[in-house]
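Appendix C reproduces, verbatim, an entry submitted by the partner laboratory led by Prof. M.T., so that reviewers can inspect both the input and the predicted structure.
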Amino acid sequence: MGSIYEEALAAIHSVWHRKWLALAVAWAVCLLGWLVVALIPNSYESQARIFIQLDDPLAQQVGIDVNDRKRDIERIRQTLTSAMNLEKVIRATELGDRIESPKAMEAAVLKLADNIKVVNEQENLFAITALSNNSSFSDAENAKVAQQIAQKLIDIFKEENLSGNRGDMVETLDFVNGQLASREKELENAEQRRRVFEQAHPEMAQGGASSSARLDSARSEMRGVEADLVAAQSALAAMNGQLAGTPRSLAGAAGGASSSLATAQANLAAMRARGLTENHPDVIAARNQVAALKAPAAQEAASGGGVPNPAYSSLESLKADREATVQSLTARRAGLQAEIAQLTAIAFDNPEAAAQAQKINRDYDVLKEQYDKLLQDREELRLRGEIKTEREAVKFEVVDPPTTPRSPVAPNRPLLLLGVLLAGLAAGAGAAFGMGKLRSTFATTAGLERTTGLPVLGAISQNLTDGARRLRARRLKLWYGGTVALGGLFVLLLAVEFIQRGMVA
C-alpha cells in the first residue's frame, strides 16, 4: 500500500514538475476540440401529429372496407418521402434557394430523406418528424426550415389523399366510359347485323335465338320428357296390375270374410302406394293375409250378395291420374319431336345460314354481357368515387400542428465542451507524466534504491536565492493565470451557446 502511495506522489510530482507542458497540451487539445464542436451545426426538430379516421359504414356498404383504406394510407405514408415529394418540399422552402444544379438537388433530396420520419404511433395516429441542420443557415433559420418541412409534408399528405384520390377516380371513370362507348357501338353493329339476317331468313328468327341453339334446347328437353314418360308408364303398369288383383265388389255382410278381404287389400294397396317394395316385411304379411282371406270371401260370394269394394274404387282414381300424366307427356314428346324435325330440316336445307345465325347470336350475346358488366362497374365506381371524395372516406385531422423548435436536439454542445475540457486536462497531465517517464529522474530516494539496488544515505534539498524564488513565484502566477484563462474560455463558450439558444427562442 505504501508503494502505491509513493508511486501516486511521484506521478503527481512529475506532472507538477512539468506543469507548463501539461498546460500547453491542455490548451492545444481544448482549442482544437472546441473548434471542432463549434463547426458542428445545431439540429432543430419539428414534430407534428395527424389523425386519420378510417370508420365509415356507408363506405363499407359499397365495397370500401377498412383494409382498403389502410392500404391507401400505407401507400401514402410510403410515398410521402419519395424523391418527387421531397423535391416539392425543397422547392417550397428555403432549402431550394441555394440549389442551382440537378446534382445539388439530388444531394439535397438524399439528405432530406434521412432527416424525415413518418411513424404510425397508433392505429389512426401518425407522427411526422422533420430535422434541419444545414450548416449554411443560422440557428433561427434551421428552426424555421424544420417547421416548414413538417408543414409541407402535411400539405402533400392532404393533396395525395384527397386530390389524388379524386384525380385517380376521374381518370378511371373516363377510361371506363371510353370502353363503354366502344362496346355500345359494337353492340349496335351486332344488333344491326342480326336484324338484317332475320329479314333475309325469317324462319331462323324465332325469339332471337339461333336454330342450332333452339335445336340443342329441344333435344335436351326431349331427353327429360322421355325419362318422365318412362317413369309414368311404369307407374301406370304397376297400378293396372294392382287393379287386376282387386275385386270390384265384396259379398256378404260388412263384417264377414269379404269385408276383411277388402280391408286387407286396402291396406296392401296403401303400402304399395307409399312406395314399399314387394320384399318389405309389412307387404309380405299383408299379401299373405289377402291370400288367406280369398277362399272364405269366394265362399261368401258363391252363397250370393255383395257390396262395392272401396279399394277398387281408390285404385281406379289413381289409375286415371296416372293415365292423364302419361297422355300429357306423350303429347309433349310429340310436339318436341315435331319441333326437332323442323329445326333439323332447316339446318339441313341451309347449313351456311344456320352457322351464320349461330355466329351472329353468339357474338351478340358476348358483346351484350360485356356491355352490361361494364355498365354495372361504372355505376359502382361512380358511387365509390362520390363516397371517397364527397364524404371523404379517409377523414384527415391535424392533432398537433408542426412545432417551431426552441432549442436544438443535437448536438449537446455544453456536454461536448465540458468533455473537451476534461479531455484536454487529461491529455496535458498524460503528456507531463509520459515525459517524466522518458527521462531518467527519480522523485524519491526509495525509487532510486529500488532501481539501483544500492542503499541511499540521504537526499539534498534545493536551496534557492531570493531572486530565484521571486522568478518561480512569478512563473507560478503566470501558470495559474493560464489555467484560469482556460477555464474562463470554457465558461465564455458556454455563455455564447446559451445566448444563441435564447436568440432562437
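The mean pLDDT is 76. Additional entries are available on request from the coordinating office.
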